[in-house]
Amino acid sequence: MKMQLRVLKKARKFLLLFFLLPLLFLNALLQGGFVSWFLFYSFLPFILYYVALSFYPLENLKVTRELTKNVFQVGDPIKVILTVRKSNFLPLFYFLIEENYSNNIHTTDQQKYTKELILTGFKKECSFDYTIYKLPRGEYCFNSLTIKVGDPLGIFESKRMFTIMNKFVVYPQYSELYYRPLEHQNNQGSSISSHHFQRDISMAVGIREYQSGDRFSWINWKASAKRNKMMTKEFEELQSNDLFVIMDCAQNGLLESIVSFTASFLHTVLKKGIQVGLLTNNKKRDSFPIRGGEGHFQKLLHHLAKIEANNNSPIEMVIEKNLSFIQQNVSYILITTHLSKNLIEKANFIKNRKASFTLFVIKAESMVVSESEKSLISIANARGVRTIIVREGNFNAAFTGGDLR
């Protein structure tokens, strides 16, 4: 129904336009004189222009959208450049360009950037740019844009949608922290060490049954043939400082702080050559193996940019259901906002399997640590589960003892 009304409205304008031309011609024939013929010949170019404009092939327009880059960080201005190139020199009075944003951009109060009017005239190519500020972290997409053309009198108007996909990512805010290796107890529990152990494959000290994940080169074929089952070499353990980070994505107002601290922590330790893995408590429970290098950091950062608080399961339940990720002689880091007795018990269970465990509890600057939380922190520290309070805006305090205010 709406489409029919638009067609009738457009047809009415054209009928009015082409009715005026013969009317002016008859008036000039009957009355004669300079004024009558002047009106007719003055109006004739407009008629010819509208006819040409009605057949103008908008689909032949070359429209491009360019971004200065595809990766941004929270707080970075995002500059967008739109360019329209005509296929011929027919003058167009204006281009009205309207951006069709994806829903997640629309929710960020960017409505003032959706339309732009460009007076084109005889120019074959025209462009304009605009800047989006303060876009929160996430993955965004420009889907398409609509271009309208028309005449100065508003009689004729035509529009067409152009599908132009541009994807970009806004990474969470992160910075390099003042990092020092976290202290933890060694296997005997009697002294403090800042490192873990890894195998020295140059020196075998024994043999054991084959386990999933063992390298092919570790197999002791002689012992395997003798015992009629796969046996691998047992190596001497040397120091290692691999880390595995678990990030709690509980639905609360501190998710952005958790993401920012996690990104800063990963950036800092990976820059120091430490290998890191990641498990996030989102709906999919995404897990990344322990790796190192800038490429691994970019992969983790891209994941943190898209993560949402879409899982209501307590973090301790997630840990219990994912015990398969536990490896011996690896430091485990849990970043959360909630501290409970059950969580401390799960952390202590992992610690007792030859792995250290550190809890970072994120708090807002104005939040007070309750007496019950202080009691839980004392219990956790007594069991060897180091627990540190980290305040928003003061992430460096995580490695200087935390803030128990």
In brief:
The protein has 9 helices and 18 strands. The protein has 405 residues and is α/β, with parallel strands linked by helices. Helix 1 (2-31) packs antiparallel against helix 2 and helix 5 packs antiparallel against helix 6.
Descriptive overview:
With 405 residues, the protein is of the alpha/beta class. It has 3 domains: 58-171, Sandwich (Immunoglobulin-like), CATH 2.60.40.10; 184-195 and 241-399, 3-Layer(aba) Sandwich (Rossmann fold), CATH 3.40.50; 200-238, no CATH class. The protein contains 9 helices and 18 strands. The strands form 5 sheets. It has a 6-stranded mixed sheet, with helices on both faces. Helix 5 runs antiparallel to helix 6 (294-306). The model is unreliable at 184-202 (pLDDT under 50).
Give the assembly state of these chains.
single chain
Main beta-sheet strand count, sense and barrel state: 6 strands, mixed
Based on secondary structure, the structural category is: alpha/beta
> How many structural domains are formed by the residues?
3
Q: How many DSSP helices?
A: 9
Q: Stretches where pLDDT falls below 50 for ≥5 residues? A: 184-202
**CATH architecture descriptor of the largest domain:** 3-Layer(aba) Sandwich
What is the CATH class name of the largest domain? Alpha Beta
Q: Name the overall outline.
A: elongated
Radius of gyration: 34 Å
Cα separation of the termini: 66 Å
**Largest sheet, order of strands side by side?**
15-14-13-16-17-18
CATH topology label of the largest domain:
Rossmann fold
Query: CATH homologous superfamily name of the largest domain?
Result: von Willebrand factor, type A domain
